[in-house]
Design brief:
CATH class: Alpha Beta
Order of helices and strands: EEEEEHEEEEH
Number of helices: 2
CATH topology: Protein Transport Mog1p, Chain A
Number of strands: 9
CATH superfamily: Mog1/PsbP, alpha/beta/alpha sandwich
Strand order of the largest sheet: 3-4-5-9-8-7-6
Largest sheet: 7 strands, antiparallel
Helix content: 25-40%
Oligomer: single chain
Shape: globular
Number of domains: 1
Strand content: 35-45%
Distance between the termini: 24 Å
Length: about 140
């Protein structure tokens, strides 16, 4: 039986073996982070500070860059994308593992949602259909 996330007007199902990470009180309830059993994560946040898409992308790139030396960045075009949707794949190495971190920014219904999907490249590929199903449900919620 899949688990269900439902908050701030967004709802989606996800595998029941994924673990919802408890959020610090100061982060509010406008987001969720789910940890995959293999160590990756899915994070959804509602952007409340009025940042532009470019600012969000650069902030994520800077955050990754602070911890990892070389980062590759590539814009991706996803099936079923909303008109104002932007997707960027970041790739970097952690130890000897290639990590894929997909950033998806959705502008719809007068708000900005930030979805980040991250896992080791093989785990990312294995979970890509699940990621796509979650994204589809989020798109339908907004």
């Amino acid at each position: 039986m899949p688990a269900k996330f439902e908050s701030f007007g967004i709802k989606f199902l996800y595998p029941d073996n994924w673990k919802e990470i408890e959020r610090p009180v100061d982060e509010g309830s406008d987001g969720v982070t789910l940890e995959l059993p293999t160590g990756g994560f899915v994070s959804l946040e509602q952007e409340l500070e009025g940042k532009s898409v470019r600012e969000i992308i650069e902030e994520v790139a800077d955050s990754i860059g602070e911890e990892y030396d070389e980062i590759e960045r590539e814009e991706v075009f996803l099936t079923g994308a909303l008109p104002n949707e932007k997707s960027i794949d970041f790739r970097f190495y952690y130890l000897d593992l290639l990590i894929v971190s997909r950033l998806i920014i959705l502008l719809a219904g007068g708000r900005t949602l930030i979805l980040q999907l991250q896992a080791e490249s093989r785990d990312f590929d294995e979970n890509e259909l699940v990621f796509a199903a979650i994204l589809k449900q989020i798109r339908e919620s907004i």
